[in-house]
Design a protein that fits this description.
- It is built from one helix and nine strands.
- The chain is mostly beta strands.
- The protein has an eight-stranded antiparallel barrel.
- A hairpin with a 2-residue loop joins strand 5 and strand 6 (about 100-105).
- The longest helix is centred in the first third of the chain and has 18 residues, at about 1-20.
């Protein structure tokens, strides 16, 4: 009976240590919803809803688990003839309280985004100013 408890105890400890390993490289739990491709769906400016985004205002973010990101902006006529204008690559970091710091490669200037997730991590809002909020949808 003593052997049973010793073996059971050793198995329990080994399972506990295995399950508590750092598999996610210290990624905060709320951050995992950020991974993926996000497109600007609509924005609200001065209380007005804008759903048809003109090409020169379209934005796509791709956030990777390895803390890299890509921000793509577009140009073109209207909202249908869009071409890629600028692709910006860099690293991102969750600084807590829904804030994410983006640092473009080769730059010392950071951009801090306050991201609030909605609809089970399928949308997020970015409050750019008191009069301008962007809403992104996960692709």
């Amino acid at each position: 009976m003593k052997r049973f408890f010793i073996i059971f105890g050793l198995l329990s400890v080994s399972l506990f240590l295995t399950n508590c390993s750092q598999n996610d490289d210290d990624i905060p739990v709320g951050t995992t919803g950020l991974f993926g491709t996000w497109e600007l769906d609509f924005y609200i400016q001065n209380g007005q809803l804008v759903e048809e985004i003109p090409c020169d205002e379209k934005v796509t973010y791709v956030f990777l688990k390895n803390s890299n990101y890509t921000k793509t902006t577009y140009a073109g006529d209207g909202s249908t003839k869009c071409v890629v204008a600028v692709i910006l690559n860099g690293t991102w970091k969750n600084t807590g309280d829904n804030e994410y710091e983006l640092t473009p490669n080769g730059s010392d200037v950071n951009e801090t985004l306050t991201i609030v997730f909605q609809d089970q991590f399928t949308k997020f809002t970015l409050l750019r100013s008191a009069n301008y909020t962007e809403v992104y949808t996960k692709q």
